[in-house]
Design goal:
The chain is globular, with a radius of gyration of 24 Å. It has three domains: about 80 residues, no CATH class; about 90 residues, no CATH class; about 240 residues, Distorted Sandwich (Glucose Permease (Domain IIA)), CATH 2.70.70.10. With about 450 residues, it is mostly beta strands. Strands 13, 16, 18, 19, 20, 22, 24 and 27 form an eight-stranded antiparallel beta sheet that branches. Strands 1-2-3-4-5 form a five-stranded antiparallel beta sheet, with no helix packed on it. The protein has four helices and 28 strands. Bound molecules: zinc ion (ZN). The site of zinc ion (ZN) has 5 residues, from loops.
Length: about 450
C-alpha cells in the first residue's frame, strides 16, 4: 500500500493516499474488531495509519481493508477502539471532512463552515454607558447600529447585546433595567424594539435582548425523514438556579416551584407536563430511534468536539458514548452581529471522527445513534444551545465538557422556538444566570415531524 501526499483514501487500494505526515501506527494494537459491529471485511492492521492527530481530540485512524472500502477507527478516551465501517462514497468522504483527493472528485461544496444568512434580517445594538444611560439602536436594513450609537453618543459605552432582528417578521424583546425591572414585547419588525425603547425612558442600566422568532438556518433534521422517532422528553426550562417560575409569563396563574409536587416542568411549548413523563432537569430532546440510525449535521458548521466519553454509566450497551458538538454561525457583516448556535448529539454508537475546528456541511453524517452512555434505550439526545445574546450575556462559549453528564447546559433552547401561549420565554425574560430566547431555526420543511408529541 502506497503512502504519499493527500488526505484521504482513494477508491483503489493501490492508489491509497494519506497525509504527508502519516505514520504507520497501531500495528498490532488491541482492536475490538467485533464482526457484528461493522459491515466491512476485517481490518488489516498493517494498513492502519494515523491520519489526524488533534491535540485534544480523539485519535483517528484509517485503514484500507479492501477495494473501495475504508475503515475508520477512533481511539476512545479510555483506550477503547471503536470501529466504523463505511462505503467509500462521496457522502462518507465528506462526513470524514475529506479534502479533494487525487483520484476522487467530491461534489461542489459550499463555502466551508459558514451558513448562508437568510435574507430579511437587520441588526440591533444595546449599548450601556458608565453613567447608566442605555441606548437601543436598530437597523432593519442590516447596517451597523452600534456604530451609529457610538457616533451619536460617544465611544465610552459597552455593547451589551448585538445581533439579528427580523426586518418585517416577528421579534421579541426583553428589557431589564436597574431595580429588577423587566418588561417584554413581541411584534413585527421594529415595533417591539420601539415599544421597549420608549418604555425604558427614564430608567437606568437597561439592557435590551432581542431575538427573531424565526431564523431559518437548519437545512435538515438530525435523523432521516424515514426514521421512526418516538419523542421521549422535551426541553425543560424550569430548573435551578431559578427554582420558581412566575407562570403568568407564559399564560398561567400562580407560580411553579422546582421540586414541589406541583407542575414544575414545562415542555417546549410552555405547557405543563406533570402528568407525563418528562425527565426532570433535562436539557434536550430525547428522540427514540433504532440503533444504527444515521444522524446528520443540521447545517454547515464547525466541529467543537467529536469524541468518545466514558460516562461510567451501566445498564446501556456500554458506558462510552459518542458525542458530537457542532457550532453553527450565522455570519453577518460586520461580525458584531453574528449569531451562533451549537447542536449536540449524544449516545452515539458509531462516530465519524473529526478534529476540533473541522468544517461540516449540512447533511454530513456525524455518526450512528445507539444506546450508549447514560441511556435506557436507543435514542438520540439532541440539544441546541444558544451562544449569542443569551439572557445574561452578550455571548457564551460552550466548553466541552460542560456540566455533568448530558444535562446542565445553561443556554439550551428549543430549536422549534418557544411557543408559550402568551408572553415570552421565561428564561429570556428574567435576569437569570442561564437561559436564552428560543428561536425557530428550521428552514421550511426541515424540522423533524413533531406530530407525535404535539397535543
Ligand atoms: Zn437525553
Amino acid at each position: 500500500m502506497a503512502l504519499s501526499s493527500g488526505l484521504f483514501v482513494a477508491c483503489d487500494e493501490d492508489e491509497a493516499v494519506l497525509t504527508e505526515d502519516a505514520v504507520p501506527v497501531l500495528a498490532g494494537a488491541p482492536l475490538e474488531d467485533d464482526a457484528d459491529d461493522h459491515d466491512g471485511p476485517p481490518i488489516d492492521t498493517q494498513d492502519i495509519v494515523h491520519v489526524e492527530g488533534a491535540d485534544d481530540g480523539p485519535e483517528v485512524f484509517v485503514g484500507v481493508s479492501g477495494l473501495g472500502q475504508a475503515e475508520v477507527l477512533v481511539e476512545g478516551r479510555s483506550g477503547e477502539v471503536a470501529l466504523v465501517a463505511s462505503e467509500l462514497d462521496p457522502e462518507v468522504l465528506r462526513a470524514h471532512g475529506a479534502e479533494p483527493m487525487l483520484d476522487f472528485k467530491i461534489a461542489d461544496k459550499p463555502v466551508a463552515g459558514t451558513i448562508s444568512s437568510p435574507s430579511g434580517y437587520g441588526h440591533y445594538c444595546s449599548m450601556l454607558y458608565p453613567s447608566g444611560v442605555s441606548v437601543l439602536g436598530w437597523d432593519a436594513a442590516g447596517n451597523d447600529p452600534c456604530a451609529v450609537i457610538i457616533a451619536n453618543n460617544g465611544a465610552g459605552g459597552t455593547i451589551q447585546r448585538a445581533g439579528m432582528m427580523s426586518a418585517a417578521g416577528a421579534n421579541q424583546v426583553v428589557t431589564r433595567c436597574d431595580g429588577n425591572v423587566a418588561f417584554a414585547a413581541r411584534g413585527l419588525g421594529t415595533g417591539p424594539l420601539s415599544t421597549n425603547w420608549n418604555n425604558s425612558t427614564g430608567l437606568n442600566g437597561c439592557i435590551h435582548t432581542v431575538s427573531p422568532l424565526a431564523l431559518p438556518i437548519f437545512e435538515i433534521g438530525p435523523l432521516p425523514t424515514t426514521a421512526t422517532v418516538d419523542p421521549g422528553t422535551g426541553v425543560d426550562f424550569a430548573r435551578p438556579p431559578i427554582t420558581t417560575l412566575d407562570t403568568s409569563m407564559f399564560g398561567w396563574g400562580g407560580s411553579l416551584t422546582y421540586g414541589s409536587s406541583s407542575a414544575q416542568l414545562v415542555d417546549f411549548k410552555g405547557r405543563r407536563r406533570q402528568t407525563l413523563t418528562w425527565i426532570d432537569d433535562h436539557s434536550a430532546y430525547d428522540l427514540g430511534v433504532a440503533r444504527g440510525t444515521e444522524t446528520y449535521a443540521l447545517a454547515n458548521g464547525n466541529v467543537i468536539a467529536s469524541r468518545w466519553l466514558d460516562t461510567k454509566c451501566t445498564g446501556s450497551d456500554g458506558p462510552v458514548q459518542g458525542e458530537v458538538y457542532i457550532r453553527h454561525t450565522v455570519a453577518r457583516n460586520p461580525s458584531t452581529y453574528n449569531e451562533t448556535f451549537v447542536a449536540a448529539y449524544f449516545h452515539l454508537e458509531y462516530l465519524f471522527p473529526r478534529a476540533p475546528g473541522a468544517d461540516v456541511f449540512a447533511g454530513d453524517i456525524l455518526g450512528h445513534t445507539g444506546n450508549m452512555g447514560c441511556s435506557t434505550g436507543p435514542h438520540l439526545h439532541f440539544a441546541v444551545i444558544r451562544e449569542t445574546n443569551v439572557a445574561d450575556a452578550r455571548s457564551f462559549t460552550l466548553q466541552v465538557p460542560f456540566g455533568v453528564g448530558n444535562n446542565g447546559y445553561p443556554y439550551t433552547i428549543d430549536p422549534w422556538g418557544w411557543q408559550a401561549p402568551t408572553g415570552v420565554d421565561p428564561w429570556g425574560s428574567r435576569a437569570s444566570s442561564g437561559g436564552a430566547f428560543s428561536v425557530n431555526l428550521w428552514k421550511p420543511g426541515a424540522a423533524p415531524d413533531t406530530d407525535t408529541w404535539e397535543d
